[in-house]
Amino acid sequence: MSKSVIANEVELSILKDITFEVFSGETVAIIGTSGAGKSTLMTLLAGLDVVSSGEIELLGQSLSQLDDEQRAKIRSESIGFVFQNFLLIPSLTALENVTLPAILRGEGEDINKARRLLASVGLSGRETHLPSQLSGGEQQRVALARAFMTQPKILFADEPTGNLDEHTAENIIELLFAMNRDHGTTLVLITHDANLARRCERTLAIHAGELKES
Amino acid sequence: MSNLKTPPGTKMVMRWSWREIWQGQLWPVMAALTLIIACVVALSALAIRVEKVMTDHGRAMMAGDLVFRSAAPTPELILAKAKQLNVTTSDQTRFQTMAFSGKRMQLVSVKAVQSSYPLRGDLILIGRDGAASSSVQPGQLWLAERLFSLLEVKIGDIVALGDAQLRVSGKIESEPELAYNPFRTMPSVFIHALDLDKTGAIQLGSRVEYRTFFRGSNGALEQIRKGYRLQAGERWISEENQGRTADLITKAKQYLSLTILMVILMAAVTLVLTCQHYSSSRTATVAMLKSMGASKSWLRLWLLSQVGLMFSMAIIFGSFIGLGLEVLLRLPLAAILPEQLPSYGWQPFVLGSAVALLIGLPALGIPLLRLLDTSAIAVLQAQAAKPSKKGLWLIAVPVIAFLLIYGANSLVWMVFAGLIVLFLLLASLSYLLLHFLSKAQWGAAMSLALSRIKRSAISSMMQLAALSGSLMLVAVIWLVRSDLLGDWQQTLPPDAPNVFAINIAPSEQQEYLKKLDEQQIQHSSAYPIIRGRLTQINGQDAKQYAAQEGNHINALQRELNFTWVEQLPDYNQVVAGQWSPQAGVSLEQELAQELGVGVGDKLGFSVNGQPFSAQVNSLRQVQWQSMKPNFYVIFSPDLVKDLPATWLVSFRINDSQLPFLNQLGRDYPTVSLLDFRTMGGKIQTILGQITWSLTVLAALGVISGVLLIFTLLRLSLHQRQREITLYRTLGASRKRISQTLWSEYGVMAIAAGLVAVVGAELIVSSLLKWGFALTPTLHLLMWLVLPILAMLIVFASLSSVIQQLLKPLK
Question: Which residue of B8, B19, B23 is in closest CB contact with A103?
Fold first, then answer.
């Protein structure tokens, strides 16, 4: 598959003829320098955007055949996200942020499950705190708990430690891999950190829009 | 109710909406909505009450809700219709006759009334030992206070009115109907209708005026009016056409509508800006929710729950604040409003909510519909949020409503069209002003500020136009009020004449004026009075000529009072033609309009059976409420100087000079003294009430405007938070950023203030000229005040947020 965009009436090729497969339960790192196309690749894989040519098959479904709403449904049922800047809702408590994916799926607030998840990321007793009352590391833990709320089949993590100090980052990564293992989720990790990438079973390096498996 | 199932997570979504309002960016939107509702509720509730009070006042001054005046008894058809519609009626017969006491005689205006008189207003009659009553009973005779000295009688004495001998019951302390025409005002006498025949004054051919007063619902009165076709010499009198106070009331009502419109416009500007700010601050959230799989229908429900909750709360808070505001607004009016206030019903609340909804639909709907279109990819790539043109059709909602409500109101259209043109002009003018400023040499902070304004030209222009637009509306509200009040004060100053002396013989004229001068009493020039008729217009019979125009003119049915002068009175404004003291006549413009004549037309007159003609050389605007001697017809001296005339002079006396007035009456028994002190006082009271109402309303409008500008500036400053943080990160000192901000907003304030003054002068001039029929003037003080006010608001807004904006970096 390929992805190009039009900028100032010129077509720019972001990703060029990329082909690869990720298997269920696998942990895959996509690495590359800034502007290499890592995040664009992730948006395509998660169905946030569509390819310009070629095809992406996600959980047995061809994404280019689906409209916005159908892709949103797949995301709500099978995909979890962890973002670099956490993206928690500022006016919701930690507990409410965690229950949000279940509500988006049309399920009720499963408070007990959300509490368990918060406990599993070490945030027992912080359920009623608003994001502004939590540190960066704590906010990313809430984001992790939120990502696992709906038992996703695939977890996309985009530079999950990019906004954290080294020590906190290490803790978060440990937690991410542990939870991934416990829940049996497929992990696609976007990072520019080669050391972090090495913790995954497979690494895909992207450079100037082209993919190289290492 | 417990069986009612809500979608899963509804509770959490409602909690979320609640917090969005209080902790998120939605509170400024709610504040703007609340303000719109509160202002509309307060102003419309007050407007309804003031309007009712003013209407009641007008009706009280004419002794009924509606009056039928005729030279013959009121037709049975009208009376039967009134009875059928359950409308109360009361009859009055008026005529002038001589009253004789044992010692003296005096021409009086007799009002023969039924005991039910007056149906509105107060009749206060003071009898023996100060006993007060409010109606006239058979056999009673009540005299105007002045008649006691003119006739040299006291309570209990006998006075003859025609053939009737009646015993004086007491004095008329206050009566509802007060005549405004000095030539038709004689001292009043009240008798009962049953005693009318005894006087023998009503003979075939006598000049008698019949009045029937009606009291009932507006609908019934309208039916009575519409069900009868007026004949010659008949007229309906209502509070809208009763003259002197009608003009004040009409203009005050127009001002009320104008103030409400201005406040709504200002709040709408703020609402649009706050909604846009909210929408842009929620793009990331919507993108994130979409990335997590939120469907459009879920997002729609989510936004609807927020908007619904916010609207409900704004309606509740707005209505309560509006009610409180109405009470506050009423406080200064307490002395002049009646104790039993008329109810305003549900109308203000419905109106407030409807206005908020109509403005809120496009203001909130357009950005929110666009927000729904946010792409999920914007969660990672903010630039991926594409601009959308969705929802523009929502603008049609308030526009159509506006067309339906104000379709026929030219004043509102004038303001609306003017505002659109001005908004464009203001934006261009602001841009040119800033462009000019940026060419000059400035310090670092000022240069940075100017470059920032120029860099984001469109958003800066929008902000400037909104700021200057709001300031302009504030200025318009205040200036129109000042000009209206100024005009009223000018036409009826506190030292306006309150006594007219008429029938002064030419031989007495000089001596009479000398007596007034000796007492240092301010008086007008003396005017000769010649009674005559207008008989011909351009060679044709005047009545026939006017009938061709479809007009039935009262002035053609009776003798008129003519005068002649070398120079027209300086308080009469010539609106067409030019006055020349030779071979010409000047007409009052409304009479000329009714007659269908203009400058150059030839009119024929008859005085004492002697015909003569004159060409109209000018038309004059006459302020009848000014209490100065005014005339429909003024001749040049050469035409009528030699005709027999009596003289008129007006003057002002205070209570301590009352003995002198009585002495004057005795010294010149043939001179009729018309005492307008009571009526002048009443008009001054109404003027005082309206002045207060308008001042309070204008103050509210100005306060709302200032608060809205304050909110607008704070929002604009909060939007700069990210940029300021970036400057701080790049090493800019707090001092440098602070100076840049002060310079930027200072420049904007001065530019907006100056541009607002230009806009306000244009709008106020148009409104005064075409809306209120007044002469526009320049308001030099405003050129200084408005930029200073803008600076003060900027100072207050910036001071309130600058510490937060410059907080230490984390």
Answer: B8
